[in-house]
Structure formats: structure tokens, C-alpha cells
Amino acid sequence: MKPSSFILIVAAFCLQLFLPSSASAQPRDVTPPVISDVIKLTDSPILGFRWELRAIIKDDRQVQSARLFYRAGGSTAFDSTSMSLEDTVRNVYAGIVPVEKVTIRGLEAYLRASDGSNITTFPPDNPQDHPAAIEVLILTPMAKPTLQPPGKYRMVSVPFNLLDPRLSNYFQNYDKTVERLFALKNGRYIEYGTNGFPQNIVPGQAVFLIYGEVSGIILLPTGLTVVTVEPFELVMAPGWNMIGTPWNFRISWAMAEKPAAVWSSLYGYDDSGFKRVDILEPWEGYLAYNFNADSATVKLLPREAPPSSQVSKERALSSDEWRLALQAQVGAQLDTVNYLGVRSGAADDWDRFDAPEPPPIGDYVSLYFPHPQWNYAGIYSADYRPLSDRGAYWDFALHSNLTDRKAELRWNGIEAIPVSFEVILLDRRVGQAVDMRQETKYTCFADEAKDDAETATPRFRLIVGNKNFAQEHAEGLMGIPTTFALRQNFPNPFAAPHGQTVIRYALPEAAHVRLSIFDMLGREVKTLVNKNLQAGYYGAAWDGRDEQGRRLATGLYFYRLHAGKFVRVNKMLLVR
Predict the structure, then answer these.
(1) Residue 3: inside a domain, yes or no?
(2) Overall number of domains in the chain
(3) Residues 450, 360: one domain?
(4) Residue 122 belongs to a domain with what CATH number?
(5) Sheet strands (E) in 61-178
């Protein structure tokens, strides 16, 4: 064999060895499937029916798989179903969401198609975190909120868009004896039908509702769920706002994007009054506060809050911090969300620990700390001060709109206050100082609710501090009197049944005290005090009623103080 022939043979062998075969010579598939004409992503599914979605999916070679991913609005985990080829000519694929997944929460969905080498999604960018939002159409009237007891207030909201949101559709024959509706305007409640009351029911807003003798329900007709793939913006006016979740799942207020001047918590409302909460439940209403003088925008995030307690929880206090809880009760009405104390990071002016006092509604008792001089002037239900070796004091007011305003103050948390500190409650009205370490409650008459109550001098002062600090701020009501004394009642004359008079007395030593009221015939009609007392200054209030709670007639009455061997009688005039 010639050398040249051998070289050709070797060259041919090498070409066969290194050149690709015809089967592997096809170019690599780099073209992904194309998803177009997503037929029903913009066509609302109907509550109570399964939802079928169709899309045209094409590929330059072959679509190997197509899936529809879906979840209820606000959820985190997706379910999925395979999409079947329904029309081979037009390449139409169809997927079905089962009826139990089509709910009032709305839907979120995305598509994924694969040709074996490439994947295409719709929406195209990160669909797991940014799926398409599908509004669910509600055609069946709903009985929401559920039945509520007559005569009880409730804050309510609607967690979807009504197709016809006009309030006049639902309260065509508004009758105050049957139902009443209240909204907030400039910090005060206004009733349906008055100037400034909202004309429409819209998601994110709430109202107070009360029914009369017959329990009631609201029948809500057709509507659309609110999209859940983007934040819902609330524009909050200065001061108090009534809000609700726009979605039919619970959401977190703490996770909402809000300016620093928007209060970090909320007030909910139940039969016992206002409660601080951090979670918004669907159909319920809440009070939110904007400290700014201008409107503020809050963005609610459409993610379901995990199961947890509704009640707002404050962080645990350190060893040098303490908190005292105050509760006021008049009749069946309670005010239980009142706190004072010292915390690291608190200030003598407004700070992030302070909580505004909610505007009361219906029959109420309200205990609050007025601060017209603060940077954010107003009245507060929680007032924290900085840590101090000497102490601090808090002035507060107590008001009620009830006819019988006999009130009871209770407190708890004394054990956390340093043992070297005095804890003294002053009642300026009766000139009495109460050692709160020795007593667990204080009984008095709440002041009548008035329009100027926010700026009037607060009746009560609570002092926590060392002995020198307490005496310095006790306005002369602490210390030991030098003699027994029975003062003239004030006012005198006094008007009943809504008024009261206060009788002050002084004890230079411990004694058993009996303070009684007598009529002109010498009959004892009321005993105000009958117990052992330590030396100090005291006061007792009388509302013109006898021992059985009956109103006494206009006339001259006598009051007698019997303390140890000391006996003194004064007279007073009751008028009707």
C-alpha cells in the first residue's frame, strides 16, 4: 500500500470518530413554550361553582406538560392540577379549580408550561410570589355579620367590593328604634342620615351598628372579592379612623406598612367594651389612630395572619420596669385598657408606649390621662414615663354618661413596684389619699361626661415614688392631721338624683369610723362609712339615696361622724 493511501484511510477513520452522527446533529432546543390568550384569568369565577381556565400554549417542537397552580387569596401554599389539551388545532389547554377552592377569599393563580428543555410561566416574573389575582364573583346574598344580641354595639365591615355599595339600599326605612348606624367624623360619632356620614359601604372601612329589640342581620347581595396580590391602601384622616380588613381572612396590623405617627396597635370592641388587638378579623371593625395633623397612608398586606391570640401582647418588662393596670366600672360598663408605669425608652412627653383613649359609644365609663400640653396633644389610656429613682405621678379623669355613676376603681401590678416607693391615689374631689398597697379598690362617683372634659383639671392623681416625692406632690392630702375634724359638705345645697355631695373628715389616730345620714325625724337613712381606718384625711360622697337606693325627698338632712370618742354633727340641704 502506498503511503498516501494509508494516510487517507486514517483521515477518514478520524473524521468518522469525531464528527457527530446525524441523530445528534439537531441544534439544542432553546425556544420556550409560548402562553397566550389566557382566556379566563380576567373573567371572574363565581362563588359556589368550579372555575375552568383555558389558555393557548404553543411550542416550536412539543408541549410536554402544562399545569395550573392556584390558592385561596392570602394563602402561602399552592395546589396544582394538570392542564389537558382540549383543542389540538388551536392548542387550547384547560385546567379546573374545584368548587371548594372558589371562596370569598378570592383566588391567586399561575400557569407553567414545559417542552422538556424550557419552562414558561404566566405571569412571567416570579409567579410563586407574584401570581395573577382573580376576583371571585359573589351572586348569592350573604347573612353577615351573624346575629347579634339586641341593644349591643358592634363594629362591622365588609371584606369585598359590593357591586352597588350605596348604604341607602340596605337602610331604606331607617328607624332608630330598630337599628342605628354610627361613623366617626373629627373624632366624634355621627349617625346615619346626618351631614358627613359615608354614603357607600367600601372595603377597609367600618361603622358601629346596634339593633333594638329584635336581633338583626345584614343581607349583602352581589359583589367581587378584593385582589390579594398587592397591598390595600388606607388613607387615614388625622385622629381616629374606623377600619376593617378588605379581605375575608385575618391579617396582621403589625405587618402593615405605616408611618411612625400611626399608632402601632388597634382597638376592637365587644360586649365588655374596647380591647387592644393586633389582628384584623373579617367582618369586624377596628379603631386606628393617626397622630399626625395630616392624612397618612397605611398599606395592608394581603397575607393571612397565623392563628394566635387576638389580644395585643406587650413585651415582658425588665427588672427595673413596672406597669400598673387600672380598671373602672360603673354598673355593667367597664373600662379595662388603662395602664401606667415606667419603661426604658419612655419619655415625659409622648412616646411609642403611650396609647390613645378610644372615643366611647353608648353607655360608658371612661378613665383616661389628659395631656393637652404634649407634642401629640390628646387623652390617653396608657401613659409610660422614664425610669426614675425618685418617682412619678399621673393625673387622670373618670367620666360616665350613666344616670347612676357610682364607680369602682381597681388596680393590679402593685407587687412589681419597688417596695421603697409609696403608691398613693388622690381624689381631689373629696380630699382623700388612699394607700393603694393597703387597699385593692376605691369607690366613688364618676364625673358627668362634658364636652370640656379633655381640658378640665383631672380629678385624680396617682403618685408612685419615695416618701419625700409623694408628699411633695400630694397637694397637702398626705400626712397625719393633728385633730379630729368634720368639714362642711360640698356642694351645699346639692341637687339629686344626678348630683352628689362630698363630706370630708380628718383622723389624727386610727379609729373605728361611722359616718351616717339622718332625716329631720332623726331616722338613720344611709350609712356611708362603717369600718376601721388609719389616721389620715378622708372623704365620702352621697347621692341623695337611702340604704335601699330610693331617692329621698327635698329637705334638711344631718350627717354625723362617730370616730372613737369623737362625735360631730353637721347639716346639709338636699334639693330635687
Answers:
(1) no
(2) 4
(3) yes
(4) 2.60.40.10
(5) 65-72, 79-82, 84-87, 92-97, 107-114, 119-122, 132-134, 137-138, 142-143, 154-157, 161-162
Domain that holds residue 343: 322-472
Residues 357 and 466 occupy one common structural domain: yes
pLDDT band at 28 (very low <50, low <70, confident <90, very high): confident
Strands across the sheet containing 223-224? 137-138, 223-224, 161-162
Please report, as a single letter, which amino acid is at residue 4.
S
Say whether pLDDT at 42 is over 60: no
Separation between Cα atoms, residue 83 and residue 65, nearest integer Å: 8
Chain centroid offset of residue 433 CA:
34
Taking only the tens place, the pLDDT of each residue in 348-368 is 999 999 999 999 998 899 999
Helix (H) or strand (E) holding 471: helix 467-472
Residue 11's pLDDT is: 44
In degrees and rounded to multiples of 5, residue 18 shows phi and psi of -105, -20
- In a shared domain, residues 300 and 196: yes
From the centroid of its chain, how far is CA 206?
12
Q: Does 553 lie in the same domain as 462?
A: no
∠ CA 347-267-441, rounded to 5°: 70
pLDDT in tens, 483-534: 999 999 888 898 876 678 889 899 999 999 999 999 999 999 999 999 999 8
Alpha helices in 237-394 (DSSP H): none
- Quickly state the pLDDT bin for 433 (edges 50, 70, 90): confident
Judged against a pLDDT cut of 80, whether residue 308 lies above it is answered with no
- List CB contacts of 439: < 8 A, sequence separation 6 or more: none
Q: Does 428 lie in the same domain as 335?
A: yes
> Are 130 and 173 contained in the same domain?
no
Cell of 335: 373600662
> 274: closest CA among 209, 357, 332?
357
- How much is the pLDDT for 71? 96
The answer to whether position 81 is within a domain reads: yes
Q: Which amino acid is located at 415 in the chain? A: E
Per mean pLDDT, which range of 142-146, 539-543, 559-563 is the poorest? 142-146
In 10 A of CB 106, how many CB atoms?
28
Asked if the structure places residue 29 within a domain, the reply is no
Cis peptide before 124 (omega within 30 of 0): no
Indicate if 306 and 326 belong to the same structural domain. Answer: no
Q: Do 160 and 176 reside in the same domain of the chain?
A: yes
**272, 330 in Cβ contact below 8 A?**
no
